[in-house]
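[scheduler] slot 2 assigned
[scheduler] job type: sequence-to-structure, two independent chains
[scheduler] chain ordering preserved from manifest
[runner] begin chain α
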Amino acid sequence: MSETQATPPPAKTVLVLNGPNLGRLGRREPEKYGNTTHEQLVAQIESEAEDLGLKAVVRQSDSESELLNFVHAAADAGDPVILNAGALTHTSIALRDACAELRAPLIEVHITNVHTREEFRHHSYISAVATGVIAGLGVQGYLAALRFIAGAT
């Protein structure tokens, strides 16, 4: 690279977090969640992020405490977050409080339309602190969230 050429800025990091049971995508209730495996979803997210000039860091955990640590790290780094908290969406005030620390966009994603499912899934503790919510678009919801973040950063 010549001295007159500027070094391109590093790609903006986006943290994509998947909560409990999402590591079992493609095997767990495919009639609801589809046939895409978590590994295939990660590849789709990473490819779409790269196409958008972003760097996706995808993490999945069945542990609430580990998800809290991931959110805290994103808050400290100022990184946007795409979060599918799974069942913790409806139960975890601690995760909601951690998400409230985020200053960059937080997009809550659900593969299914949680509002057409069991009553207990209709309430989200995360939505109140999220920039936006995407539900019912299948795994395409993650890609829509990436496109939003690419336009917002």
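[runner] end chain α
[runner] begin chain β
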Amino acid sequence: MASVYELLLNSLKDLGKDELKAFQWHLKKNHKEISHSEMEEADRFKTVDIMVDVFGEEEAVKNTVVILRKMNKNNQAKNLEENLKQGNRLKLNYSVYR
């Protein structure tokens, strides 16, 4: 079974360079715990590491799903949710986020 890190990374892998920057922009904009300097040169791996370090696994997943949906990347958001549910990795409750 894939780890949460791997699932988060997979959800970002199909984002192009500009889309990754947009994802990081949403992350910084909505979460003051993440500084501009942390994201400035962050690749996908570093972005996932920062999210899990700052939020923990469950919140990192929730934030990723919310941001992907804001970016109209609904397939990636749905796939992340389904992969997590299949693995029973986390109990996700998105009612606050929708």
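[runner] end chain β
[qc] chain β: Confidence is low (pLDDT under 50) at residues 93-98.
[scheduler] slot 2 released
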